[in-house]
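Researcher: Structure prediction, please.
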Amino acid sequence: MCNFSTAIAMKTMQEGRDEGRVEGRENYVFDLRALRMYLKSIGKYDDAERAADRPECFAELWEKYKDKI
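Model: Predicted structure follows.
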């Protein structure tokens, strides 16, 4: 059993984690969209679709092209 202040701390910590997850997903979606637009603009349509389908491909392509976006 935990006391009231511990319960509040645990709830706040969980809310922070949830916020971080949401923020991370929003950043991922924005980065994925930017990467796909860039890849399509340089004619790499297959890579753009691969990035959308597989997160590990997105990570690889993001590291490769993030400086050019």
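Model: Helices lie at 4-41, 45-53, 55-65.
Researcher: Thanks, that helps.
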